[in-house]
């Protein structure tokens, strides 16, 4: 072993020997075999006679390399943690249950609270969550208790001045402190603002498109009637070819309007008694007339009266059957199974088509989401149908689920409560 900072160590030693004091020196020596340095601690004290003269030195040397390494790792990890905590990129808070017990300056700045508010216990998740986000927040905290982490989700905080801040929040539980978690908060206002302007645009565009289309439709019908009266059969046939695309445009614009109404919470529902069996057969018949490729098979029965919006419920099953046909280009049938229990009615729409990969099954109910496979992409659509379907089903107190096997087909199952008073 060759002394590394030997010169310095010797100087210190000479000094302690000269001043006759006890010493304690940490130093490093190079291990020539391993080529690395190890830390040692040398301690020494003089042994004196009764006159105070030093007779000899008593010394020890300890290998403290392991301890030094731990100290260094701890220092580095503390530095990392404090760099993260002090960064202005992300808001961070430490949670104990619903109480925030610590937070970085960025989070305080985002929410307008002060360090004193934090110390006085005035920062509480429940207190800082608007009522419309409470259920989702509670669900996230249950997720934290069960899985030790929260997958980032969108919510809002109520700031100290009462304004609302859109954020994306995620959290992980601390390993050695079962009740504490560290939460990460990103300001989401820029994205939300962008979404709002997109929604405004869609709302405006769908209104602007609807009026000229209605005029075009009316004019086509008038001309058609006039031509029929004058027995211009060829011209009637030519004109009726425009009716399909007009209907398609009408449906798309209607869906755009529905999406923007749902976003604004303004989609209205009638409350009427609906004969579900009759409605489902009606929808199946209409879709059968439109399809030249598939046979629609209705099995079972749902002899139940529901309270709901007949047109909107019709829209749900029209959409599901239309998707079933659209996404099973090579198949010949689409089946609709009806079943009823004393409390619920279940309607399944089953196709033998492309199927939907597992990781995309939840996402297909999101606004404007379209599956990413090349075969799906080749089929036109805007990703609005299932979003509207899910919303209508939800507003009728029901649920919609999807079961699917890629390359084999998909089954969409809607369950509705038998009678609802609301
Ligand atoms: P669109 O059909 O206009 O794209 P939807 O909201 O109706 O919009 O559907 C969203 C996505 O879900 C579709 O893009 C498609 O990829 C997938 N999907 C819906 N229904 C089916 C189905 N029956 N089979 C396979 N994929 C489907």
Automatic annotation (TrEMBL):
<feature type="domain" description="Histidine kinase">
    <location>
        <begin position="204"/>
        <end position="420"/>
    </location>
</feature>
<dbReference type="InterPro" id="IPR003594">
    <property type="entry name" value="HATPase_dom"/>
</dbReference>
<keyword id="KW-0808">Transferase</keyword>
<dbReference type="InterPro" id="IPR000014">
    <property type="entry name" value="PAS"/>
</dbReference>
<keyword id="KW-0418">Kinase</keyword>
<dbReference type="InterPro" id="IPR005467">
    <property type="entry name" value="His_kinase_dom"/>
</dbReference>
<dbReference type="InterPro" id="IPR001610">
    <property type="entry name" value="PAC"/>
</dbReference>
<dbReference type="InterPro" id="IPR036890">
    <property type="entry name" value="HATPase_C_sf"/>
</dbReference>
<keyword id="KW-0902">Two-component regulatory system</keyword>
<dbReference type="InterPro" id="IPR050736">
    <property type="entry name" value="Sensor_HK_Regulatory"/>
</dbReference>
<dbReference type="InterPro" id="IPR003661">
    <property type="entry name" value="HisK_dim/P_dom"/>
</dbReference>
<dbReference type="Pfam" id="PF02518">
    <property type="entry name" value="HATPase_c"/>
</dbReference>
<dbReference type="Pfam" id="PF08447">
    <property type="entry name" value="PAS_3"/>
</dbReference>
<dbReference type="InterPro" id="IPR036097">
    <property type="entry name" value="HisK_dim/P_sf"/>
</dbReference>
<dbReference type="InterPro" id="IPR035965">
    <property type="entry name" value="PAS-like_dom_sf"/>
</dbReference>
<keyword id="KW-0597">Phosphoprotein</keyword>
<protein>
    <recommendedName>
        <fullName>histidine kinase</fullName>
        <ecNumber>2.7.13.3</ecNumber>
    </recommendedName>
</protein>
<feature type="domain" description="PAC">
    <location>
        <begin position="23"/>
        <end position="76"/>
    </location>
</feature>
<dbReference type="Pfam" id="PF00512">
    <property type="entry name" value="HisKA"/>
</dbReference>
<dbReference type="InterPro" id="IPR000700">
    <property type="entry name" value="PAS-assoc_C"/>
</dbReference>
<dbReference type="InterPro" id="IPR013655">
    <property type="entry name" value="PAS_fold_3"/>
</dbReference>
<dbReference type="InterPro" id="IPR004358">
    <property type="entry name" value="Sig_transdc_His_kin-like_C"/>
</dbReference>
């Amino acid at each position: 072993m060759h002394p590394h900072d030997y010169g310095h160590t010797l100087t210190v030693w000479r000094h302690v020997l000269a001043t006759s004091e006890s010493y304690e020196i940490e130093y490093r020596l190079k291990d020539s075999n391993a080529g690395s340095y190890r830390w040692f601690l040398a301690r020494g004290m003089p042994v004196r006679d009764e006159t105070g003269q030093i007779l000899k030195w008593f010394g020890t040397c300890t290998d403290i390399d392991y301890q030094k390494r731990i100290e260094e790792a701890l220092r580095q990890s503390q530095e990392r943690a404090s760099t993260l905590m002090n960064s202005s990129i992300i808001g961070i808070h430490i949670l104990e249950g619903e109480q925030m017990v610590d937070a970085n300056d960025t989070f305080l700045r985002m929410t307008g609270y002060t360090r004193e508010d934090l110390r006085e216990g005035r920062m509480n998740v429940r207190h800082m969550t608007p009522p419309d986000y409470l259920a989702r927040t509670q669900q996230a905290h249950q997720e934290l208790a069960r899985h030790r982490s929260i997958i980032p989700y969108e919510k809002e905080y109520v700031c100290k001045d009462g304004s609302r801040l859109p954020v994306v929040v995620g959290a992980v539980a601390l390993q050695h402190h079962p009740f504490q978690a560290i939460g990460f908060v990103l300001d989401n206002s820029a994205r939300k603002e962008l979404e709002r302007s997109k929604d405004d645009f869609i709302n405006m565009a769908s209104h602007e498109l609807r009026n000229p289309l209605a005029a075009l439709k009316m004019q086509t019908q008038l001309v058609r009637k006039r031509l029929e009266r004058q027995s211009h059969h060829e011209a009637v046939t030519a004109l009726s070819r425009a009716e399909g695309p007009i209907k398609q445009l009408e449906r798309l614009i209607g869906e755009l309007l529905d999406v923007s109404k749902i976003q604004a919470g303004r989609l209205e529902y009638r409350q009427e008694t609906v004969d579900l069996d009759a409605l489902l057969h009606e929808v199946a018949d209409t879709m059968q007339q439109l399809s030249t490729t598939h046979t629609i098979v209705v099995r079972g029965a749902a002899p139940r009266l529901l309270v709901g919006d007949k047109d909107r419920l019709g829209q749900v099953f029209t959409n599901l059957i239309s998707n079933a046909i659209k996404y099973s280009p090579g198949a010949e049938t689409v089946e609709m199974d009806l079943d009823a229990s004393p409390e619920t009615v279940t309607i399944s729409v089953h196709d033998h088509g492309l199927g939907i990969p597992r990781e995309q099954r939840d996402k297909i109910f999101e606004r404007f989401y379209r599956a990413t496979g090349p075969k799906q992409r080749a089929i036109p659509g805007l990703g609005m149908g299932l979003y509207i379907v899910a919303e209508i089903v939800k507003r009728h107190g029901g649920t919609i689920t999807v079961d699917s096997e890629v390359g084999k087909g998909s089954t969409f199952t809607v369950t509705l409560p038998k009678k609802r008073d609301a």
